[in-house]
Q: What sequence folds into this?
């Protein structure tokens, strides 16, 4: 058992080095991938996509934000060197098919998985950017792109107005979580503690925003004459 545990730790360490994130964040990465892929597949099911189409939407949701982040940071996109993401999204499709009643036909599953993915990917983007030596404000932006970017691609593919462009609190939750993350790190907190607090901040803001209908002010034109 000890040998197996050591092998698992080595695998996490190796993958962390490849992804440029601490080993514990590898687990966060894959849980976030599952959650975001399920959110994409769940939404694709509402549009009556076939299995392959749903898989593509799930994959785009899961890797889209991280791909944009890595390109902006000047490094190869993370999924080009590790095929596990394709299998992870395939597992998400399988889970959605097997547990169709619980996932597809439950009202709040899309919100649940999208919020979890948003919070987890946000901290991955922040930590990866900090690990590469960028300043905190850059990390906050990259965390937001990592968390919200995949959702934008998903919504565009499904011909929906992206959540990030609506009045609903979405990207702002990422920014708040990012500020909390960087603040805790600057106070000397560990990456794990910073991540935990950041995740809680994002999830709590999203839940409260939906529950109490918080939203940002909306810009409206007047008679087609502009703002």
A:
């Amino acid at each position: 058992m000890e040998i197996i545990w050591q092998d698992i730790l080595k695998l996490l360490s190796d993958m962390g080095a490849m992804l440029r994130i601490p080993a514990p964040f590898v687990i966060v990465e894959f849980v976030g991938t599952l959650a975001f892929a399920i959110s994409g597949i769940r939404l694709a099911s509402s549009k009556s996509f076939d299995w392959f189409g749903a898989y593509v939407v799930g994959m785009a949701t899961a890797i889209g934000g991280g791909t944009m982040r890595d390109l902006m940071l000047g490094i190869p996109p993370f999924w080009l060197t590790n095929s596990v993401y394709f299998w992870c999204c395939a597992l998400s499709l399988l889970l959605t098919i097997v547990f169709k009643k619980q996932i597809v036909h439950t009202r709040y599953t899309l919100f649940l998985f999208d919020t979890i993915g948003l919070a987890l990917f946000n901290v991955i983007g922040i930590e990866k950017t900090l690990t590469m030596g960028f300043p905190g404000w850059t990390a906050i932006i990259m965390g937001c792109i990592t968390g919200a970017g995949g959702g934008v691609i998903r919504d565009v593919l499904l011909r929906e107005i992206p959540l990030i462009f609506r009045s609903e609190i979405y990207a702002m939750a990422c920014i708040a979580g990012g500020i909390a993350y960087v603040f805790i790190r600057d106070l000397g907190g560990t990456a794990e503690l910073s991540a935990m607090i950041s995740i809680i901040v994002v999830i709590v803001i999203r839940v409260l925003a939906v529950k109490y209908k918080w939203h940002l002010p909306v810009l409206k034109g007047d008679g087609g004459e502009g703002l």
Summary: The radius of gyration is 18 Å. The mean pLDDT is 87. The first helix runs from residue 2 to 19. The chain has nine helices and no strands.
